[in-house]
Write a structure and sequence with these properties.
CATH superfamily: Vaccinia Virus protein VP39
Organism: Kribbella flavida (strain DSM 17836 / JCM 10339 / NBRC 14399)
Protein name: Methyltransferase type 11
InterPro entries: Methyltransf_11, SAM-dependent_MTases_sf
Oligomer: single chain
CATH class: Alpha Beta
Strand order of the largest sheet: 3-2-1-4-5-7-6
Number of domains: 1
Keywords: Methyltransferase, Transferase
GO molecular function: S-adenosylmethionine-dependent methyltransferase activity
Length: 271
């Protein structure tokens, strides 16, 4: 039986449309601490050339620039890059933001000492091509540092809910596989020596589970786009299912949300 080739270009066009819907930085900015922890784990140094891949509004690029690295952010969503530039300017940080595809980065071979991604490159549909690009642009002896949601954590469970309403494209592996050591080994092989693989938790803090659901439906582009495509009745059901995700992970006892979401922080040396 002949398998049908996956049209990654078409998938990325749909993804881009999703990220350009809503206002993702309203969610992404709350994740800044993940980037701060990642650049510390990678031991970034002043003057190093640092690249934030699938940077969104620039969390990791900004974190690196705060430590006087020469930071660049690449993303295919122009609206997110625009907000990254605004954020960097507000902090008087020198960050270059460039439009580009994580699977075809617009930078030369071996041109960065540190290549980062915080819950970004994991969404590239062609996992192997994205991993190969991370290798290509990292100088030998440089570091690759990634933070990725895990399959079993809260965000992995949220994606399962989303997947019930809009199944992922055939032939595309789940993004949360990047949050497993096994998948990183499969993607990078012996080209990277992983020196740190640590499970961490990010705490989502919202007024209530319903507030979390509303915030994500209003601002998290792909979910905003999905919610807008549903009937009124289905939209209400989806909203309730989305609220149940942080509710099941919630550790707050005062009616608010303090829900822990597991992610894998991986730091490796490019061989």
């Amino acid at each position: 039986m002949t398998s049908t080739a996956v049209d990654f270009a078409a998938i990325k066009d749909k993804q881009r449309a999703g990220w350009q819907t809503g206002d993702y930085p309203r969610v992404g900015n709350t994740l800044q601490i993940i980037a701060e922890l990642l650049v510390e784990a990678a031991d970034v140094r002043a003057g190093q050339r640092a690249l934030d891949v699938a940077c969104g509004q620039g969390n990791a690029a900004i974190a690196a620039a705060r430590r006087f690295a020469e930071a660049t952010g690449v993303d295919y969503a122009a609206n997110l890059l625009a907000q990254g530039r605004e954020r960097a300017a507000a902090e008087h940080l020198d960050v270059t933001f460039t439009e580009g595809d994580a699977e075809n980065l617009p930078v030369p071979d071996a041109s960065f000492d540190l290549v980062l991604s915080t819950v970004g490159v994991m969404f590239a549909p062609n996992h192997q091509q994205a991993a190969d690009e991370l290798i290509r642009v990292t100088a030998p002896g440089g570091k690759i540092a990634l933070s990725s949601w895990t399959p079993t954590g809260m965000v992995g469970q949220m994606f399962k809910v989303v997947g019930k309403w809009t199944p992922p494209p055939a032939g595309v592996k789940p993004a949360v596989l990047w949050g497993t050591e096994e998948h990183l080994t499969e993607l990078f092989g012996d080209r990277v020596q992983w020196i740190a693989l640590n499970k961490r938790e990010y705490v989502f803090r919202y007024h209530s589970p319903e507030h979390f659901s509303e915030w994500f439906r209003q601002f998290y582009g792909p979910i905003t786009k999905l919610a807008g495509s549903l009937s009124e009745q289905d939209r209400a059901t989806f909203a309730a299912e989305l609220a149940d995700v942080p509710r099941s992970f919630n550790q707050a006892d005062d009616g608010t949300v303090a829900a822990r979401a597991e992610y894998l922080e991986a730091v490796g040396v490019r061989r």
